[in-house]
Design the sequence.
């Protein structure tokens, strides 16, 4: 209880109105040079037949293609079994772990489904046209294989703490994989590198950016420029930080209890609304599908031709579902199972839900309502375009859409609080005081995200998050044979009936 009061006391202090308008400018000025250096490295672009592609996207997509072939298109073959696992058909209540398969999936999905699905897709379509949607779907499909590998490795090399809690993720399987290759001298430093990067990254992409976007949507639904809360980001931020604090104090089980209820509600609500718009504009669906397929292979398509829109689609998918980042493996490592492969099956559903379903539906909503090629020059982007698309058919949808966006931001904050926490405890060790220090720090940044404009900090965070893809995917390549052997052994025992389906028995 003392730690709870401490958390909220500190939040209250730092969330007071900041009169010094130059604070954010000073911080930005200090951070900007480092941000520029890191961004120029991680997002370095190469020319491919006249189109620019960031090397990090090539790294992510290359891995996704490799693992899709390496596991013989398990992203297609594994659907049925993934659903069986989510239903609990093969679950034993006495299995070691903290979360059910469904809770782990909900927690991980809450970290990826969010503003990017609503706003990011709109930006891609406005720039690249309908054809970018096709490559977004392809990249999402391929990313399922990377998620499979990450989640299997996350369970294979997880650590069971003395109190029964679980710690896992790329920092642990990076360390283990490098030791297997007789690179012990590099194992711990690489694990620590990932852990430090995920801690720094979570404060931006999974914290300040989300709280800022939530605040902006809240201002919109409470009156816009005339809203009482327009200049009270400190108040909104402190309330949001307090709510998050109440949830994260309960650890991964507390987070999972919220996300397992919130994520299905948000996802189903958004999908239902999107389907309603598409059905009401059913006469335009054939054109939309035709445009997606034809423009995807059109040499004279918008934004650099076929290759240009392919890159746009791949980039949006990679940034949306985070396949290759390794964050989801941190949550999936905590699942109640004795079979690492089971969590790989469950994990591959994430890019399908995030990219193949939600991003595609967002694209169809836009294409069947307000899309026109000229909008690329009109400056209508992001959530404003998606809102316009929904409201063109459902005039009452703007407020619900904004509310859903706030909930998406909230759930993303919850998931990333856990990812950052596990990175932190990997560095400093597992203890109650270490966890409370991080939770306090994390909640402070939530309030700051609504109060000051730390553009350079957010840009730095974005770059750091994608830096972790370099060691993470390298670790997955090293562990690929071990993961494949684990998969073959599991499938053999599943086919023979050694692994029992409790629903059937």
Sequence:
């Amino acid at each position: 209880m003392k730690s709870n009061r401490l958390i909220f006391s500190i939040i209250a202090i730092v969330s007071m109105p900041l009169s010094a308008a130059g604070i954010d400018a000073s911080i930005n000025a200090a951070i900007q040079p480092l941000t520029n250096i890191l961004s120029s490295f991680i997002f370095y672009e190469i020319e491919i037949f006249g189109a620019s592609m960031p090397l990090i996207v090539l790294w992510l997509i290359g891995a996704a293609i490799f693992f899709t072939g390496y596991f013989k298109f398990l992203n297609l073959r594994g659907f049925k079994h993934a659903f069986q696992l989510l239903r609990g058909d093969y679950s034993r209540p006495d299995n070691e772990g903290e979360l059910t398969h469904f809770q782990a999936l909900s927690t991980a999905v809450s970290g990826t489904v969010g503003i990017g699905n609503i706003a990011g897709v709109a930006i891609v379509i406005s720039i690249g046209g309908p054809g970018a949607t096709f490559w977004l779907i392809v990249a999402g499909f391929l990313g399922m294989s990377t998620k499979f590998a990450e989640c299997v490795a996350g369970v294979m090399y997880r650590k069971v703490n003395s109190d029964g809690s679980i710690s896992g993720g790329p920092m642990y399987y990076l360390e283990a994989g490098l030791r297997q290759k007789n690179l012990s001298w590099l194992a711990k430093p690489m694990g620590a590198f990932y852990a430090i990067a995920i801690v720094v990254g979570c404060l931006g992409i999974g914290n300040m950016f989300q709280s800022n976007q939530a605040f902006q949507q809240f201002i919109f639904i409470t009156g816009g420029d005339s809203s009482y809360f327009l200049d009270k980001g400190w108040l909104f931020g402190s309330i949001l930080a307090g709510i998050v604090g109440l949830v994260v104090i309960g650890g991964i089980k507390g987070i999972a209890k919220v996300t397992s209820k919130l994520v299905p509600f948000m996802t189903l609500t958004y999908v239902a609304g999107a389907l309603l718009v598409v059905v009401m504009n059913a006469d335009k669906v054939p054109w939309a599908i035709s445009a997606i397929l034809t423009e995807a292979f059109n040499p004279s398509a918008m934004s650099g031709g076929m290759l240009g829109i392919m890159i746009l689609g791949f980039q949006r998918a990679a940034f949306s579902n985070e396949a290759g980042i390794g964050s989801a493996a941190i949550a999936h490592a905590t699942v109640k199972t004795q079979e690492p492969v089971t969590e790989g099956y469950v994990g591959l559903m994430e890019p399908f839900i995030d990219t193949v379903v939600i991003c595609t539906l967002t694209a169809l909503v836009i294409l069947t309502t307000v899309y026109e090629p000229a909008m690329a020059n009109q400056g209508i982007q992001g959530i404003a375009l998606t809102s316009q698309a929904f409201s063109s058919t459902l005039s009452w949808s703007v407020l619900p859409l904004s509310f859903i966006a706030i909930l998406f931001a909230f759930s993303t904050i919850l998931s990333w609080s856990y990812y950052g926490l596990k990175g932190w405890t990997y560095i400093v060790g597992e203890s109650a005081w270490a966890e409370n220090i991080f939770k306090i720090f994390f909640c402070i940044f939530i309030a700051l995200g609504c109060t000051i404009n730390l553009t350079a900090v957010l840009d730095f965070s974005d770059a750091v998050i994608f830096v972790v893809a370099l060691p993470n995917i390298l670790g997955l390549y090293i562990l690929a044979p071990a993961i494949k052997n684990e998969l073959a052994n599991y499938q053999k025992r599943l086919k023979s009936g050694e692994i029992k389906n409790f629903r059937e028995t």
